[in-house]
């Protein structure tokens, strides 16, 4: 069982920020998720919200302020006793992406800067499996780690004022999907027409931190069909349950 040196500090009067070593590692993310499972069994989850991301966990209390001195000590005790229980349901989600040049508006530039052909770029992007390290910036925006170093590329120097919904981008060692129209500075290489976030559903975001994502390429005609299916709510996203080992 991994044990890390934690930083615990107040994040306002209603929240606490717990931080692990400042590294992007699946082992750290797994430790965070295990600690979350421990907290869920010790806290009244009607009063608390837990937000994991990369190397941190934010605990937000609804209602009364947090007694930081008392509660931070309790958190350390729970962490020492957390065990190795992981979330019972983790999934690999397979998402269709159209890499047509009209959608992948930065494809040519990215391929030239990385010194590879567009087909090679697409092949590298679709052969990897990515880990959801965080969800934020926009509701449902997934920060996906695990991008091969061959596709590593900086954010655009000047962000666009408008990035269309479903745009698939690259930035640093990450890839992700814009769940709605937004300004943004990622390098756009394709489009996924499948809605990941719907405020009317419970939960509103299909994917959780700790899940896996794999992209596969589709034609423009398939993209248009999936867009219609997604809009009317009949598209069935392919998901595969990940075997989670118990303690």
Automatic annotation (TrEMBL):
It is an enzyme of class 3 (hydrolase). The keyword Ribosomal protein does not apply. Coiled coil: none annotated. Keywords: ATP-binding, Hydrolase, Nucleotide-binding. This is 5-oxoprolinase subunit PxpB. Its EC number is 3.5.2.9. Pfam families: CT_C_D. SMART domains: AHS1 (SM00796). Residues 6-207 form the Carboxyltransferase domain. One of its GO terms (molecular function) is 5-oxoprolinase (ATP-hydrolyzing) activity.
